[in-house]
């Protein structure tokens, strides 16, 4: 559902700004959690997940990046970097919180609690802090992002960029899901699997370094460094070199700045006018 919604989300942000879209995301996510938490049957449970999918398509990194691009135009890069820096703490907070809620009130109660958080915290923050961008009329000059097609050269660049970002994202997602199994396959004792906790600090540290550079290099260099760091980390793990901590820190650092590159490379290559539209298209295969 997130993939289905992404291109339309990009168009909506281009036309109306991100504030109404992100507010809709908070409502959809709250509704999804509410339906799941109260689901009396499997079909209703699955309907709740459909709502969550739509909410994620309207409210995760890609719509947030498009919103920042719409608000700050070519100057959005520092804001995107800052967003990913703070977003890196999401799992640090939510994994323990989820475990605590499930233990205290069960999984249904945890879903209801998250529904309440989206309504009581996320929605007011979106409405209160995000500026309302001026609407773009379909025939206005600012609407060229939707109405003007990519040139053949731009289309080739967009397809290449999409391939690189989607493949890179797929590799990192698979590694993250199967990390414990990968470590055990390399002979790492189960007690040492806690090395995986090094990934998140490495992500945050790499994002801090990227922020400190203050945009002095092109985002393509950020993407290149991210891929090199991830490749080095995985190569060390695959080779069985006894440096698991180093491998995971390299992987985490690359993963951390990869998310920044995913938001800043399209902005740098194609400009701010078409940025929300292209981010929406880019999110579809990556969802």
TrEMBL record:
Key word Cell membrane present: no
A family per Pfam: MFS_1
Keyword Membrane: yes
Tree of life domain: Bacteria
Keywords, alphabetical: Membrane, Transmembrane, Transmembrane helix
GO molecular-function terms, A-Z: transmembrane transporter activity
Residue intervals of the Major facilitator superfamily (MFS) profile domain: 1-287
Spans traversing the lipid bilayer: 21-40, 80-101, 107-130, 157-181, 220-251
Alphabetized InterPro entries for the sequence: MFS, MFS_dom, MFS_trans_sf, Proton-linked_MCT
Alphabetical list of PANTHER family matching this protein: BLL3089 PROTEIN, MONOCARBOXYLATE TRANSPORTER
Protein name: Major facilitator superfamily (MFS) profile domain-containing protein
UniProt organism field: Methylobacterium frigidaeris
Classification of source organism: Bacteria, Pseudomonadati, Pseudomonadota, Alphaproteobacteria, Hyphomicrobiales
């Amino acid at each position: 559902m997130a993939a289905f919604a992404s291109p339309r989300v990009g168009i909506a942000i281009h036309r109306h700004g991100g504030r109404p879209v992100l507010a809709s995301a908070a409502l959809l996510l709250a509704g999804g959690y509410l339906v799941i938490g109260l689901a009396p049957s499997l079909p209703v449970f699955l309907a709740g997940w459909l709502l969550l999918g739509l909410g994620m398509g309207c409210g995760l990194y890609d719509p947030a990046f498009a919103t920042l691009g719409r608000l700050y135009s070519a100057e959005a890069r520092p804001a995107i970097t800052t967003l990913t820096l703070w977003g890196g703490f999401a799992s640090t907070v939510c994994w323990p919180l989820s475990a605590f809620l499930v233990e205290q009130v069960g999984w249904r109660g945890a879903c209801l609690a998250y529904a309440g958080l989206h309504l009581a915290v996320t929605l007011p923050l979106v409405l209160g802090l995000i500026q309302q961008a001026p609407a773009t009329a379909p025939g206005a000059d600012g609407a060229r992002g939707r109405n003007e097609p990519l040139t053949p050269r731009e289309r080739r660049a967009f397809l290449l960029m999409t391939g690189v970002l989607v493949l890179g994202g797929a590799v990192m997602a698979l590694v993250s899901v199967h990390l414990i199994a990968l470590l055990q396959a390399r002979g790492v004792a189960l007690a040492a699997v806690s090395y995986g906790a090094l990934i998140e600090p490495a992500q945050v540290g790499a994002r801090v370094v990227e922020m400190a550079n203050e945009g002095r290099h092109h985002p393509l260099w950020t993407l290149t460094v991210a891929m090199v760091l991830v490749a080095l980390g995985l190569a060390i793990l695959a080779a069985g070199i006894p440096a698991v901590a180093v491998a995971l820190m390299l992987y985490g650092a690359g993963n951390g700045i990869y998310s920044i590159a995913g938001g800043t490379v399209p902005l740098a290559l194609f400009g701010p006018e078409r940025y929300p539209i292209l981010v929406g298209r880019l999110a579809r295969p990556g969802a």
